[in-house]
Write a structure and sequence with these properties.
single chain, 120 residues, mainly alpha
Amino acid sequence: QTSAQVLTVLAVSFGPFSVGLSKGYASPALASLQQDTEDSYNLSRAGQISVTPEEGSWIASLSLLGALLGGLLSSIVLRYGRRNTLLLVSIPFSASWMLTVFATSVEMICCTAFLSGLCS
């Protein structure tokens, strides 16, 4: 009984933790992704992604834009209940983290930022 309760509390706690990470992830990640234009050719050849300042601002903003649209879609909570909505949203939210980890382009990072914002 106690281990099931602890597991439940941990599972519920990871939701807000994940949302906080997705919102705060852009700041330290963009610092490492933004490089001088001279280094961008060498970085792209090494398999790393280089982000321009304009692309960086889009990455940081798309999460909040997705959260705006997600808030407008929050009426689903009233229709299907909190538990079912959280279970439904956890699938694309987890997918956005997996896509963030394996992102190969700036466009993919933008999509994952928007998706994580939408699901938060």
